[in-house]
Amino acid sequence: MSYSVGDALPPFVIPAASPDAMKQWAVFLADPNPIHLDVAVVKAKGLGDKRINQGPMNVAFMMNMLLAAFPGCRIEAMDSRFLDNVYEGDHLTASGTVTAVDGNRVSCEFTLDVLGRGTVNSGTATLVI
Amino acid sequence: MEELPPAPAVAGTSLDGTKLLTITAEENAALCRSTGVEPTADGSAHPIYYYIATQVAMGKTVAGICETCEFDVEDGPMMGSSGVRFSAPLMVGESYKVTGEILSLVRKLSRKLGVMDVLTYRLRLHPAAGGDAVLETDNVWVLPRKELAA
Known about the structure:
The complex is a heterodimer of chains A (129) and B (150).
Chain A: E1 8-14, H1 19-28, H2 39-44, H3 55-69, E2 74-82, E3 92-102, E4 105-114, E5 118-128
Chain B: E1 21-22, H1 25-34, H2 49-57, H3 62-68, E2 78-86, E3 95-110, E4 114-127, E5 135-144
Antiparallel strand pairs in B: 1-3, 2-5, 3-4, 4-5
């Protein structure tokens, strides 16, 4: 398989951000922040009326897109920016584009987008393929 | 405009961990499935463990880091960015330890957030048995300073 600058990466789709996954991630991260678990707390803090996804889970969705796009690859470096929250029920799409190819290293830029709200995460990565 | 008081001088604060973190096959599988994929068959862990393992095994909790920065975690720290450089994949069944430090805490005035402190800290994940770090990560958090709002 060969890759070229400008190639679009197949999107990775999460149909609906899951409150059950947020409960699991509170354990994985040893972080019981109630904005991920309790709608009443989110409302009380003026952050909306839905539970908020843990930021690292959003990074994992983008990693899944990269790993699926280049089967057998290894992520060598990755930088992610957090631009907005992901809320329970949000329909998410991670997608990306090849920005450089150097031997067995491929560089990409990518985003995580919420249907109807736009980009909530963006970043760059270098993969060893 | 009045000059802002300086941010607390916390650069250099150690975040070295004292406990080991083992990525179990069970948790890795649950984590992978929670993100919509199956665990790999080659023994490698999901790469997002770069963030999870360093956060769980570093020497302070998120609330503890905020306290060091004289910031109440209840005031809502926000993730700004996260970067990682891997030198080896993370493996299921392996135990790791963390070293790290706060790099900077910089006070800024934001049109959107008002006064805020930008916290940058660096963590490294090492095999528990010793040896070079398998990854280094820099995380940036935004700490809105409501008490300094005009």
